Amino acid sequence: MRKELTRTKQALDEETVRKIIETTAYGVISLNGDDGYLYTVPLSYVYADGVVYFHGSPRGYKYECFQRTDKTSFSIVGQSQVVPSVRANNFQSVLIWGRLQTVTDTAEKLYALRALAEKYSPGISDNEEEIQHSLNYVFMVKLVPEWITGKQASLEVREAAEKF
User: Cα(112)–Cα(106) distance, rounded to whole angstroms?
Assistant: First the structure.
């Protein structure tokens, strides 16, 4: 696993990285697919207590791929803006490397489902009813980060974007 950014001047500070992880609606995860192919799929998620939680159906191709993947990377694009004058993208992104673990503990699963509900449907009166209903059939997995990096466009691109 490559840990260090090549272009260190483009590294995001920890606070910006955390904000991107906490507020972005989805990211793309890489899983082991069939016949040696990677299966990359966009997923909604929630970041809570230092781990990333995903949920889904306990059947189907995505579920199968989660079952055969231990190490993974998860990519989040927090910002993307094409800047034609410099033929570049003014971006901010985060990459999380880590290990996947199936969540089997009921209390942790409830915690993650509540965190997901709060992120994606805050203030909805029947969130708890839906959470209790889905508790027994939802598949829950967590990504325990081993390394997190954040990167942004070069200063030249960021400055050009301000003029755009």
Answer: 10
pLDDT of residue 125: 76
Is 139 in contact with 63 (CB distance < 8 Å)?
Answer: yes
SS3 for 105?
Answer: coil
Strand partners for 89? 82
88-97 tens-digit pLDDT? 999 999 999 9
DSSP-based three-state secondary structure for 43: strand
Nearest 5°: the CA angle 32, 72, 6 is 125
Residue 123: left if φ>0, alpha if ψ -120 to 50, beta else—which one? left
Place of tokens 């993947």: 69
Residue 1: band (very low, low, confident or very high) from pLDDT cuts 50, 70, 90: low
- Give yes or no for a contact between 77 and 91, defined as CB atoms under 8 angstroms apart: yes
Residue 95, Cβ neighbours under 10 Å: how many? 17
Are 94 and 76 in contact by the 8 Å Cβ rule? The answer is yes
pLDDT of residue 42: 97
d(CA 30, CA 45): 14
* Domains and their CATH numbers in the chain: 8-163 (2.30.110.10)
